[in-house]
Specification:
The structure is a single chain. The radius of gyration is 21 Å and the shape is globular. With 397 residues, the protein is of the alpha/beta class. The relative contact order is 0.12. The protein is built from 16 helices and 13 strands. The strands form two sheets. Strands 3-2-1-4-5-6-7 form a seven-stranded parallel sheet, sandwiched between helices. Strands 10-9-8-11-12-13 form a six-stranded parallel sheet, sandwiched between helices. Strand 6, helix 7 and strand 7 form a beta-alpha-beta unit.
């Protein structure tokens, strides 16, 4: 098929993160399955060929109050997007939904082709729970619902998201649950040779150490402060020896709090913080992990956790021994003691106990990592996601 992938998110200069991995993964999977993809975006994305990207920039709109510029973009971008689709002649539009973006629906109606809407969560929920000011929550919700109703297929990352949409009146049959995945051509245990791996270990100062790792954007939901608290417990118990290092890769809103706790507990010796790295560098850093952490925390409002951490599937594809909170989708994908160790969300003592167990048992780490790797290849690739979305589209074509 000829597929127009449209990204309307105003975020630019993104080097890494779940959204970058998701976009690159889906587009790569579409191409590997034989489809021709035209990527149309508000800006270039690291890891995607600029020559194969059509940029329809929002210009100064990105500097307006959050939401207003996004709504205006529906009108200012339409002529350029229409011209591009006139030349490309797509058979399908795939839209990664972003706040107040209804332009993909307008294009699908104009060209009389189906729309697959990738929906990763409600912007209304985000605004209410993360204190993001919006000019009109009612307008945001109305546009969101309009797009969901007009889409031929809605792809969501978790069952709780589907359940929420069904409650809002969206037809269940057109909603596809696609947990996030990994690009197994990039994320695999042999991404670095032993020599290359040792060179990177020396560069980071973790040579000869058991490396406990985390990678991410240090968001509110990632639970990064819990990692420091667990390390503090191990230190208090006399179990945080010099043979252990915590390698926390990335940066974001929770980084100041993480750094404050590291300093408070005098844990600087044990924590290595290389900062944000490019998406293509991520597999190399993950290859250094002996233990991979996914300490996701519950939603602040008590609602069911609806996310699908991309890092989890990348850990699995790398064959890593994973410790994850027993939360939402994670508890359904991972089996405690079989392909990961799970602990109750925000139970720092249990997280510390899981760490102690894996640090002292290399054989268990190898067993868990091998099982996770097999599961990733069997069920959690971007190609599997794309197939499910397009198969759901077939009855409407």
């Amino acid at each position: 098929m000829m597929i127009a992938y449209i990204r309307t998110d105003f975020a630019n200069n993104l080097k890494a993160g779940g959204s970058v991995a998701h976009i690159r993964g889906v587009i790569s999977a579409m191409k590997s399955l034989g489809h021709t993809v035209d990527f149309i975006s508000t800006g270039y994305l690291v890891g995607l060929d600029e020559k194969q990207t059509t940029v329809v920039s929002p210009g100064l709109l990105r500097y307006l109050i959050f939401g207003i510029g996004n709504y205006i973009y529906n009108f200012t971008s339409l002529p350029a997007l229409t011209r591009r689709l006139d030349g490309f002649k797509p058979e399908l539009i795939y839209h990664r939904y972003s706040i107040l973006s209804r332009v993909a629906v307008a294009l699908a109606l104009r060209f009389n082709i189906p729309l697959v809407l990738e929906y990763n969560g409600s912007e209304v929920w985000v605004a209410k729970n993360w204190n993001i000011p919006l000019f009109s929550l009612k307008t945001v919700e109305a546009v969101e619902l309009f797009c969901l109703e007009k889409a031929a297929v809605v792809a969501v990352v978790s069952q709780p998201l589907k359940d929420d949409l069904v409650k809002r009146g969206i037809e269940p049959a057109k909603i596809v649950v696609n947990p996030n995945g990994a690009d197994i051509s990039e994320y695999h245990p042999s991404v670095l040779s032993d020599t290359e791996k040792e060179a990177l270990r020396k560069q980071l100062g973790v040579s000869g150490k058991t490396v406990v790792g985390f990678i991410g954007t240090f968001g509110q939901w990632h639970g990064t402060p819990d990692i420091v608290e667990a390390a503090h417990i191990l230190k208090e118990q006399g179990k945080l020896t010099d043979t252990i290092r915590f390698l926390m890769v990335g940066n974001g809103i929770m980084m100041p709090e993480v750094n404050e706790r590291i300093a408070r507990y005098k844990l600087e010796t044990w924590f290595v913080m290389p900062g944000l790295i490019g998406q293509r560098e991520a597999p190399k850093y993950l290859s250094l992990f002996d233990i991979a952490l996914n300490p996701t925390v519950p939603n602040q409002d008590g609602s069911e956790f609806f996310g699908s951490p991309t890092k989890l599937f990348e850990y699995m594809a790398m064959g890593l021994a994973i410790i994850s909170s027993r939360l939402g989708q994670m508890k359904d994908i991972l089996n405690d003691g079989s392909d990961a160790l799970l602990y109750e969300p925000a139970d720092i003592k249990e997280l510390a106990a899981c760490l102690d167990k894996l640090i002292s048992d290399p054989a268990l780490r190898a067993k868990l990592g091998s099982a996770a790797l097999k599961k990733a290849h069997a069920s959690y690739t971007w190609e599997a996601n794309v197939r499910r979305s397009l198969e759901a589209l077939t009855p409407s074509r």
